[in-house]
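Colleagues,

For the teaching module next term, I've prepared a clean inverse folding example: a structure given as tokens, and then the sequence designed for it. I'd like students to try predicting residues themselves before seeing the answer, so please don't circulate the second half yet.
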């Protein structure tokens, strides 16, 4: 992989069994490269296989790549991944940023798919459920992935049958366990419809009149057509003031990658900064970034050369030279080894949230400074 100033955008998808990525620019059609992730028993070895696969490609890309991830991340590390539990604690974001030599933005795969299916209304929530190896899901509110807590929601692990089978997550009766039992022939289609229906009723009580899109193998194959599934589910759910609108996903395959490319259109805007106190080092910067990531601020380490602009930094273009940037913007300042970048979404919130983020950043800087003394 080569990073360079380019209007080509890179999107990546780390799924349960496959790793995929694609480069897209303008109206160019995109064709993902896909690799089965080998089962090697350690995160380091499996990531090395992914890195090698990425390295075979010498196309350039610009902007900030977005990766859709099946595992749950916390502060850039894998917090939980039932399918590959030995990835727990693996510093995925750091490893990717090293391989790509670029900041990277992570997004839950269900949330990425939900962005693709979301419509224009801002008075209802759009929910996507994707039935692949497992069940991934996400919630979109007013065109943006809904942040419902400090971690991504796990719609696939909502319990829909307390007497159901044990799930990979350790609980009994998640919708994902029901989906896997159905695929293995241990659960009838009618029983699966009842479980999915129960999930939709629950979701509609939390998000009244939400719009739910169903995608993946549940609607593309198996014992029922998409239309039959819709009609069975609508019968189960019934109709009242809270009832969801149920529909089939427009994006049958590669929904997470398509969602990542949607988000990436906006994620070219990063605010860049640097630790400016005397003697600040790369390890101070890393400590600062980790503390803020743990607090949920969408911040990344920046790799030199990065530049500080008088207004918001536009596309950071890690491969651009300082001279090229000065030519475009005479006020460019070299940030160097202690730089970081914050996703612009952090700065598009209300005044109270902005105040809170500013305060968190200030506290993190003070804490790093204090540790040095
Ligand atoms: Zn589960």
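(Answer key — instructors only)
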């Amino acid at each position: 992989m080569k990073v360079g100033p380019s209007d080509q955008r890179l999107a990546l998808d780390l799924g349960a069994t496959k790793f995929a990525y694609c480069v897209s620019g303008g109206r160019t059609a995109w064709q993902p490269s896909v690799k089965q992730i080998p089962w090697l028993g350690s995160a380091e070895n499996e990531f090395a296989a992914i890195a090698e696969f990425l390295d075979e490609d010498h196309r350039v890309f610009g902007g900030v790549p977005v990766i859709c991830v099946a595992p749950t991340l916390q502060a850039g590390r894998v917090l939980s991944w039932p399918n590959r539990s030995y990835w727990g604690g693996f510093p995925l974001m750091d490893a990717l940023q090293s391989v790509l030599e670029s900041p990277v933005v992570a997004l839950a795969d269900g949330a990425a798919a939900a962005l693709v299916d979301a419509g224009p209304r801002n008075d209802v929530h759009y929910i996507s459920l994707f039935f692949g190896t497992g069940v991934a899901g996400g919630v979109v509110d007013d065109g943006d992935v809904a942040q419902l807590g400090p971690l991504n929601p796990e719609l696939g692990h909502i319990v829909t049958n307390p007497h159901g089978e044990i799930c990979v997550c350790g609980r009994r009766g998640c919708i994902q366990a029901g989906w896997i039992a159905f695929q293995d022939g241990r659960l009838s289609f009618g029983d699966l419809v009842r479980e999915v229906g129960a999930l939709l009723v629950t979701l509609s009580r939390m998000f009244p009149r939400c719009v739910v899109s169903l995608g993946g193998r549940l609607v593309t194959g198996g014992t029922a057509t998409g239309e039959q599934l819709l009609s069975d589910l609508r019968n189960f759910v019934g109709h009242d003031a809270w009832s969801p609108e149920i529909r089939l996903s427009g994006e049958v395959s590669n929904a997470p990658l398509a969602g990542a490319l949607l988000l990436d259109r906006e994620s070219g805007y990063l605010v860049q900064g640097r630790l400016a106190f005397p003697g600040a080092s790369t390890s101070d910067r890393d400590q600062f970034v980790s503390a803020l990531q743990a607090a949920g601020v969408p911040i990344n380490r920046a790799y030199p050369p990065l530049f500080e602009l008088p207004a918001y930094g536009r596309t950071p273009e890690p491969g651009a030279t300082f001279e090229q940037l000065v030519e475009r913007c005479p006020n460019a300042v070299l940030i160097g080894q202690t730089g970081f970048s914050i996703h612009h979404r952090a700065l598009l919130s209300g005044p109270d949230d902005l105040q809170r983020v500013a305060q968190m950043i200030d506290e993190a800087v003070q804490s790093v400074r204090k540790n040095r003394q």
